[in-house]
């Protein structure tokens, strides 16, 4: 191997015999050997360089295989940069992986904690008996007693039953965490009962990117159901019917619903849940879109995803299937 060094002009010859002799020898880990020898992993990346400290600067000798173009920055760094290089084990300062920024997770957790405090201690609770009655009527646990439920409340109740299905289709499998052992399915299951209050903790713990999906997994439950265009079409149709039912109600019924919202803890919490699910949905639409490499052709759907429920449901209907999308698909175990 040929070494070409960018040394400055040699200083005048110095009589080194006047200096006291020492028994110091250069460390063996930096001594060049034949190409076939084995080196420790820490110094394997800096073996092509000969490091010579002089007056606080780092002077580097490069091998003939590592040529530098005129556009590259000069291969001269300060002594602190050399220490960083050695401290990082020659990994260029990245430490062998990207360090995760926990700021967003911390802020999201703080938001969730404050939200739960509000739900349990600060939300209005003026009609607890009425809340139990409404819940029994919506669950069909109470017979026909002549009382007609507010259609806006009924529509919100049924749309809240569809939101967890939409999030299941958005989070599985493209929002799974490859850098964490925490699965997404328990949070999705709990969202059928707790809505966004059960999903936000997973958003805090989420560590992208998603792991590769096996082709055989697409043919099994639940992905065969969640990836089905029939499922997306039925969800979209049901959502449109519910929205039409709600907005066809008169203004007086909306005012009545607003009065319920101000006094009923059950309706108050459910309405906030609807708003949270609508707020987080565009982000997960974008995440699923980029995972399927469809963020170019499908970018026009991002503004539409801001429409509560209908926007994300439309995206689920039009998005490409995982089998057709050019994402990382792992070979099935029977084919390996």
TrEMBL record:
Biased composition (Polar residues): 66-80
Gene Ontology CC entries for this record: plasma membrane
The keyword Transmembrane helix is annotated on this UniProt entry: yes
Membrane-spanning segments: 106-123, 152-172, 184-204, 230-254, 266-286, 298-318
Region annotation (Disordered) ranges: 66-97
UniProtKB keywords: Membrane, Transmembrane, Transmembrane helix
PANTHER family: PTHR36009, TRANSMEMBRANE PROTEIN (PTHR36009:SF3)
Protein name as it appears in the record: Uncharacterized protein LOC105178685
Phylogenetic classification of the source organism: Eukaryota, Viridiplantae, Streptophyta, Embryophyta, Tracheophyta
Gene that encodes it: LOC105178685
């Amino acid at each position: 191997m040929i070494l070409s060094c960018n040394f400055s002009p040699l200083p005048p010859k110095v009589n080194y015999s006047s200096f006291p002799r020492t028994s110091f020898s250069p460390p063996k880990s930096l001594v060049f050997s034949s190409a076939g020898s084995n080196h420790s992993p820490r110094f394997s990346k800096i073996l092509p360089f000969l490091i010579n400290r002089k007056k606080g600067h780092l002077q580097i000798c490069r091998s003939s295989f590592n040529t530098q173009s005129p556009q590259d920055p000069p291969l001269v760094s300060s002594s602190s940069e050399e220490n960083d290089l050695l401290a990082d084990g020659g990994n260029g300062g990245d430490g062998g992986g990207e360090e995760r920024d926990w700021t967003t997770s911390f802020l999201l957790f703080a938001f969730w904690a404050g939200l739960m405090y509000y739900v349990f201690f600060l939300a209005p609770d003026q009609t607890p008996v009425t809340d139990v009655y409404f819940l029994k009527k919506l669950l069909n646990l109470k017979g026909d007693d002549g009382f007609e439920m507010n259609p806006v409340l009924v529509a919100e109740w049924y749309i809240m039953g569809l939101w967890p299905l939409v999030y299941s289709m958005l989070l599985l499998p493209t929002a799974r965490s490859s850098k964490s052992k925490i699965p997404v399915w328990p949070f999705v299951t709990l969202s059928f009962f707790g809505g966004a209050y059960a999903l936000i903790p997973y958003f805090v713990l989420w560590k992208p990117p998603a792991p590769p999906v096996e082709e055989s997994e697409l043919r099994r439950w639940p992905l065969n159901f969640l990836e089905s265009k029939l499922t997306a079409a039925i969800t979209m149709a049901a959502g449109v019917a519910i929205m039409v039912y709600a907005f066809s109600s008169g203004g007086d019924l909306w005012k009545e619903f607003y009065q319920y919202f101000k006094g009923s803890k059950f309706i108050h919490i459910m309405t906030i849940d609807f708003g949270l699910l609508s707020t987080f949905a565009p982000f997960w639409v974008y995440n699923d879109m980029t995972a399927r490499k469809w963020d170019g052709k499908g970018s026009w759907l991002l503004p539409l995803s801001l429409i509560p429920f209908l926007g994300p449901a439309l995206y689920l209907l039009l998005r490409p299937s995982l089998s057709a999308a050019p994402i990382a698909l792992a070979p099935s175990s029977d084919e390996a």
